[in-house]
Design goal:
With about 240 residues, the chain is α/β, with parallel strands linked by helices. It has one domain: Rossmann fold (3-Layer(aba) Sandwich). About 40% of the residues lie in helices and about 10% in strands. It is built from 9 helices and 6 strands; from the N terminus they run H-H-E-H-E-H-E-H-H-H-E-H-E-E-H. The chain has a 6-stranded mixed beta sheet, sandwiched between helices. Helix 4 links the parallel strand 2 and strand 3. The longest helix has 16 residues. The protein is globular.
Amino acid sequence: MSETSEVIQKPGNSAGLTAQAIAELNRKYQPLNFEARLNQLYRDFKPEKIMVTSSFAATSAYFLHIISRLRPEQIIFFIDTGFHFPETLLYRDYLIGLYHLKVVDLKADSYQHEYSEKEKLYETDPDFCCTINKVNSLEEIKPNFDIWMSSLMSWQSDHRADLEIFEERRGIIKFNPMIDVSREERDAYILEHKLPFHPLVNEGYSSIGCTHCTVKGEGRSGRWLGKPKTECGLHL
């Protein structure tokens, strides 16, 4: 870990970063672009302590394309809820082959997943359904890591609009290197590098999650239609 992290005391996150250290990291990384932030992260923190997740959703190719170039040995965790669109699984497998990704699937406890399916929790209690099929499986491995990197962008939802590059979330330091990447910048990169979109994007899906909780729509308007829910709970 670099001198940036040496102001460590004993706070409540596995990286041991104080609020002051997190603020200093945000100041340091703010002027950098997405790719430069990734390069810096791998210099500032132990690579084996960095957890990367991807939903392999609408435009994950941008995020994964850069990671695969900078650190091809990086493990990517994919939360397999058991309710994904077949197109999402095909897209995941296609990107794995295209970028030679090392992907590890995380799955819910089989008994709990069967319970959520039998009781149709995605209709009656979608928060509980997400906890069983998404949140719990990630919570199990989080203690093994200091940094959690994801591809959240501020324009995707009101909650994400308030996120910073580094922040503490439930005992781990979240790293959001794409948080200030605009939709136009993302799409321009995808077109410039001829990266593949998720196959459902052309059918009108902008944000793609589980089959029961996703319909066509702009932004995240197609997620949990008719419910106040806008996040699965992973990033809250």
